[in-house]
Amino acid sequence: MKLPQGAPGAKVLAFGHYQPANVVTNDDLAKLIETNDAWIQSRVGIKERRFAGPEESEIDLAVQAGGKALAASGLAAGDIDLVIVATCTLEAQIPNAAGRVSHRLGIDAPGAYDVNAACAGFCYALASASDAIRAGSAKNVLVIGTEKLTQWVDIQDRATSVIFADGAGAAVVVPSETPGIGPVVWGSAGDKADAIMIKDRNSALNQEGQTVFRWATTALHPIAREACERAGVDPAELAAFVPHQANLRIIEAIARKIGATNAVVAKDIVLAGNTSAASIPLALSRMIERGEVPSGGLALLLGFGAGLTYASQVIEIP
Amino acid sequence: MAATEQEILAGLGKIINEITGIPAADVTPEKNFVDDLDIDSLSMVEIAVAAQDEFGAEIPDDQLKHLKTVKDVINFIQA
């Protein structure tokens, strides 16, 4: 038996993102449920979000984002040999998303699997992609975070329906001579699994807001700092901090505790809502598109969510 | 030695001021967090976490919702 020779490192060559066209403002929601713009902005920091209609599935969102990342990378569909889709909101569990998305993008016979680590899913998938390249299991990987939260949220539950939204973000990951994706720090807190859950196939997503808020604002900044340490990066060197876009108050609380004094902090939630596994690539892709972060700079990613799961790593911005 | 009511009140005033911007002098025992001080449920979590760091008494979320006034929190910390 012999083993293949992997690459010394892996890096993100390009990002891409996609949001449904339908913009839903807080005032729009106030027409449907008992809420208002001031309440939503003060609690979660969201001004507007996007909802996909019945004509657009989480697979459609993933195909759009994946296609854009692929086009931006300059690689051809045939160059991709592994597709990983991070999602927790598939309408049906079988078949997986990765196979269907690959086929629609014209990627022929890649390894194709889904990752369910909820809002931490993209960071888990990115770590798996990097490891696959370094182990020689894959050459070029397409990683996609896609979510259609609206199909698992009860619009009448204002604790969730004002927060969660739809969208997708993607990254093309390729071999690299120097490390472009740092070591992942990941873990879980299964004792708090009940804090974010869909009880059964007939239920909607339920979230214990205070429990999640307390956990997120107290347990996660050491994880993010450890990801920096393991990558040999001082937080002050970071050009960007891109945490999962859960809640603006959580984002700001964690950012204060990390010491990323020179980093642009992603606040994409304001205009995109919480899109779970899609939120990190969606936010970073939009920051790159707006020219807010330098190519070659370092970005700290921090995913966290249902499970409860978390994962963090430093990456080089393409 | 456990903190006195006055010490806890002064500590809570400082914590609440840092988290919400409400003047510490407005934080008096009879004040209701929601009705009088307009403090929301997420700020209450931040206050509970800061109070735990300051006074060493953990206030779990299932207890937090029963603590309506400043005096309730002082009593909980002293208990």
Model regions low in confidence, pLDDT < 50 over at least 5 residues of chain A? none
Q: Quote the distance from N terminus to C terminus of chain B.
A: 13 Å
Low-confidence stretches of chain B: none
Q: Categorize the overall geometry of chain A.
A: globular
Reconstruct the topology from this structure.
The complex is a heterodimer of chains A (318) and B (79).
Chain A: E1 9-18, E2 23-25, H1 26-30, H2 37-43, E3 48-50, H3 58-73, E4 82-86, H4 97-104, E5 111-115, H5 121-135, E6 141-148, H6 158-161, E7 166-176, E8 185-188, E9 196-198, E10 205-207, H7 209-219, H8 221-231, E11 240-243, H9 248-258, E12 264-265, H10 269-272, H11 279-289, E13 298-305, E14 309-316
Parallel strand pairs in A: 4-5, 4-6, 11-12, 11-13
Antiparallel strand pairs in A: 1-7, 2-3, 6-7, 8-14, 9-10, 13-14
Helix pairs in contact in A: 3-4, 7-9, 8-9
Chain B: H1 5-20, H2 41-55, H3 61-64, H4 70-78
Helix pairs in contact in B: 1-2, 1-4
Task: Give a structural overview.
The complex is a heterodimer of chains A (318) and B (79). Chain A is an alpha/beta fold and 318 residues long. Chain A is built from eleven helices and 14 strands. Chain A has a five-stranded mixed β-sheet, with helices on both faces. A five-stranded mixed β-sheet of chain A has the order 8-14-13-11-12, sandwiched between helices. Chain A has a two-stranded antiparallel sheet with strand order 2-3. In chain A, a hairpin with a 3-residue loop joins β13 and β14. The radius of gyration of chain A is 18 Å and the shape is globular. Chain B has a single domain, classed as ACP-like (Non-ribosomal Peptide Synthetase Peptidyl Carrier Protein, Chain A). Chain B is built from four helices and no strands. The two termini of chain B are 13 Å apart. The chains are: A alpha/beta (318), B mainly alpha (79).
